[in-house]
Specification:
Layout lengths: L8 H6 L1 H11 L8 E4 L12 H10 L4 E3 L5 E3 L1 H12 L3 E4 L13 H4 L14
Parallel strand pairs: 1-4
Antiparallel strand pairs: 2-3
Length: 126
């Protein structure tokens, strides 16, 4: 079984990753055997948000609050999602550390609004 989930700020806040885990387990996946890769995203040092938004997301996704390089409120969704997955009992969690804001080869809405494209490939080796 294989799956792919996009969890931006809103999706991560409302638990889309946990819901995907529940759906996989309902189809027979064993939580301890699930492997997850958290892909490139804007990092907590670059993702500036209003303080009230940071507090709201942190309330729903513990571990996601951060400070930007400028010392302003930020979000580190990867950190929050990693904590969520580890707390749920996911067997293996990998992280692609690239920041979409800093890496010019990756699209970032915060760097190049309004639109761009990223693609991910998910497969099962036989």
């Amino acid at each position: 079984m294989v799956g792919a989930v996009h969890a931006g700020r809103v999706g991560a806040r409302v638990g889309v990753v946990v819901e995907a885990l529940k759906a996989m387990m309902a189809l027979g996946a064993e939580l301890g055997r699930i492997e997850v890769l958290l892909g490139p995203s804007v990092c907590g040092e670059c993702y500036e948000v209003p303080a009230d938004m940071q507090k709201d997301v942190e309330k729903h996704l513990p571990g996601s609050a951060s400070k930007t390089r400028r010392g302003t409120p930020g979000l580190d969704l990867r950190a929050g999602l990693w904590n969520q997955l580890a707390s749920a009992g996911v067997g293996k969690i990998g992280v692609d550390p690239r920041c979409t804001f800093e890496e010019k080869d990756l699209f970032s809405h915060r760097r190049e609004a309004p639109t761009g494209r990223l693609a991910s490939v998910v497969w099962v080796e036989s």
